[in-house]
Amino acid sequence: MARLERPESFPMTTQRKIRVLVGKAGLDGHDRGAKIVAASLRDAGMEVIYTGLRQTPEMIVAAAIQEDVDAIGLSSLSGAHMTLFPRVLELLRANGVRNILLFGGGIIPEADGAALAAQGMGRLFGPGSDTREIAAYIEAEVARRRAAA
Questions:
Q1: Could you tell me which of 8, 21, 24, 33 has the fewest CB atoms within 10 Å of its CB?
Q2: What are the backbone dihedrals phi and psi of residue 38, each rounded to the nearest 5 degrees, phi first?
Q3: How many CB atoms lie within 10 A of CB 86?
Q4: Res 30: pLDDT
Protein backbone atom coordinates (compact mmCIF):
# COMPACT_ATOMS: atom_id res chain seq x y z
CA MET A 1 0.00 0.00 0.00
CA ALA A 2 1.43 3.37 -1.01
CA ARG A 3 2.03 5.97 1.63
CA LEU A 4 0.58 9.41 0.96
CA GLU A 5 2.95 12.29 1.45
CA ARG A 6 1.88 15.65 2.74
CA PRO A 7 2.25 18.32 0.05
CA GLU A 8 4.64 21.13 1.02
CA SER A 9 1.84 23.68 0.59
CA PHE A 10 -0.41 21.93 3.12
CA PRO A 11 0.02 23.34 6.61
CA MET A 12 0.75 21.01 9.53
CA THR A 13 -1.86 22.75 11.64
CA THR A 14 -4.73 25.00 10.83
CA GLN A 15 -5.78 27.93 12.94
CA ARG A 16 -9.49 28.05 13.63
CA LYS A 17 -11.46 31.02 12.42
CA ILE A 18 -11.86 33.93 14.79
CA ARG A 19 -15.22 33.68 16.56
CA VAL A 20 -16.93 36.92 17.57
CA LEU A 21 -20.12 37.40 19.55
CA VAL A 22 -21.91 40.68 18.79
CA GLY A 23 -24.38 41.74 21.46
CA LYS A 24 -26.83 44.46 22.35
CA ALA A 25 -27.04 44.64 26.13
CA GLY A 26 -29.78 46.36 28.04
CA LEU A 27 -32.86 48.07 26.66
CA ASP A 28 -31.12 49.63 23.66
CA GLY A 29 -33.28 48.83 20.62
CA HIS A 30 -31.04 50.32 17.94
CA ASP A 31 -29.21 47.45 16.26
CA ARG A 32 -28.48 48.65 12.74
CA GLY A 33 -24.81 49.38 13.48
CA ALA A 34 -24.35 46.07 15.30
CA LYS A 35 -25.82 44.19 12.34
CA ILE A 36 -23.56 46.07 9.90
CA VAL A 37 -20.49 45.23 11.99
CA ALA A 38 -21.59 41.59 12.32
CA ALA A 39 -22.03 41.25 8.55
CA SER A 40 -18.70 42.97 7.89
CA LEU A 41 -16.85 40.68 10.26
CA ARG A 42 -18.47 37.69 8.57
CA ASP A 43 -17.34 39.08 5.20
CA ALA A 44 -13.82 39.35 6.66
CA GLY A 45 -13.84 35.58 7.29
CA MET A 46 -14.80 35.50 10.95
CA GLU A 47 -17.53 33.37 12.50
CA VAL A 48 -20.09 35.70 14.05
CA ILE A 49 -22.80 35.00 16.59
CA TYR A 50 -25.35 37.82 16.90
CA THR A 51 -27.35 37.58 20.12
CA GLY A 52 -30.08 40.02 19.17
CA LEU A 53 -31.62 42.84 21.15
CA ARG A 54 -32.15 43.32 24.86
CA GLN A 55 -29.67 40.82 26.23
CA THR A 56 -28.46 40.93 29.81
CA PRO A 57 -24.74 40.94 30.52
CA GLU A 58 -25.23 37.49 32.07
CA MET A 59 -26.79 36.18 28.85
CA ILE A 60 -23.99 37.65 26.74
CA VAL A 61 -21.22 36.16 28.88
CA ALA A 62 -22.95 32.76 29.05
CA ALA A 63 -23.31 32.71 25.26
CA ALA A 64 -19.69 33.80 24.78
CA ILE A 65 -18.42 30.99 26.99
CA GLN A 66 -20.73 28.40 25.44
CA GLU A 67 -19.77 29.45 21.90
CA ASP A 68 -16.03 29.56 22.76
CA VAL A 69 -15.60 33.00 21.21
CA ASP A 70 -12.38 34.95 20.85
CA ALA A 71 -14.07 38.35 21.14
CA ILE A 72 -17.25 40.05 22.25
CA GLY A 73 -18.42 43.22 20.56
CA LEU A 74 -20.94 45.24 22.55
CA SER A 75 -22.98 48.04 21.04
CA SER A 76 -24.48 50.81 23.13
CA LEU A 77 -26.45 53.79 21.96
CA SER A 78 -28.58 54.16 25.09
CA GLY A 79 -26.03 55.72 27.43
CA ALA A 80 -25.84 52.62 29.63
CA HIS A 81 -22.29 51.72 28.57
CA MET A 82 -20.78 52.67 31.95
CA THR A 83 -23.02 50.10 33.62
CA LEU A 84 -23.27 47.33 31.03
CA PHE A 85 -19.69 47.14 29.70
CA PRO A 86 -18.05 46.92 33.17
CA ARG A 87 -20.64 44.31 34.17
CA VAL A 88 -19.64 42.12 31.22
CA LEU A 89 -15.97 42.51 32.18
CA GLU A 90 -16.82 41.61 35.78
CA LEU A 91 -18.74 38.49 34.72
CA LEU A 92 -15.96 37.35 32.40
CA ARG A 93 -13.45 37.63 35.25
CA ALA A 94 -15.83 35.93 37.72
CA ASN A 95 -16.02 32.99 35.31
CA GLY A 96 -12.24 32.80 35.03
CA VAL A 97 -12.23 34.05 31.45
CA ARG A 98 -9.19 36.19 30.69
CA ASN A 99 -8.58 35.55 27.00
CA ILE A 100 -11.76 36.96 25.42
CA LEU A 101 -11.35 40.41 23.90
CA LEU A 102 -14.16 42.81 24.82
CA PHE A 103 -14.52 45.71 22.41
CA GLY A 104 -17.41 48.06 21.82
CA GLY A 105 -19.15 50.60 19.72
CA GLY A 106 -21.77 53.28 19.87
CA ILE A 107 -21.98 56.79 21.17
CA ILE A 108 -19.48 56.84 24.01
CA PRO A 109 -17.88 60.06 25.30
CA GLU A 110 -14.07 60.15 25.34
CA ALA A 111 -13.90 60.40 29.14
CA ASP A 112 -16.08 57.30 29.46
CA GLY A 113 -13.92 55.51 26.90
CA ALA A 114 -10.81 56.23 28.93
CA ALA A 115 -12.49 54.97 32.12
CA LEU A 116 -13.60 51.78 30.35
CA ALA A 117 -10.10 51.22 28.92
CA ALA A 118 -8.66 51.53 32.43
CA GLN A 119 -10.99 48.71 33.49
CA GLY A 120 -9.75 46.43 30.69
CA MET A 121 -12.10 47.25 27.84
CA GLY A 122 -10.68 46.97 24.32
CA ARG A 123 -11.09 49.61 21.64
CA LEU A 124 -14.31 51.52 21.20
CA PHE A 125 -15.56 52.40 17.73
CA GLY A 126 -17.95 55.27 17.14
CA PRO A 127 -20.53 55.88 14.45
CA GLY A 128 -19.01 55.89 10.98
CA SER A 129 -16.02 53.73 11.91
CA ASP A 130 -14.48 51.83 9.01
CA THR A 131 -15.50 48.19 9.42
CA ARG A 132 -12.18 47.12 7.87
CA GLU A 133 -10.42 48.88 10.76
CA ILE A 134 -12.62 47.01 13.25
CA ALA A 135 -11.82 43.66 11.59
CA ALA A 136 -8.09 44.44 11.46
CA TYR A 137 -8.09 45.37 15.16
CA ILE A 138 -9.85 42.12 16.11
CA GLU A 139 -7.49 40.03 13.96
CA ALA A 140 -4.39 41.65 15.48
CA GLU A 141 -5.62 41.50 19.08
CA VAL A 142 -6.84 37.90 18.83
CA ALA A 143 -3.53 36.86 17.23
CA ARG A 144 -1.65 38.57 20.07
CA ARG A 145 -3.80 36.82 22.70
CA ARG A 146 -3.49 33.41 21.02
CA ALA A 147 0.30 33.77 20.84
CA ALA A 148 0.45 34.66 24.54
CA ALA A 149 -1.72 31.70 25.59
A1: 8
A2: -60, -45
A3: 17
A4: 85
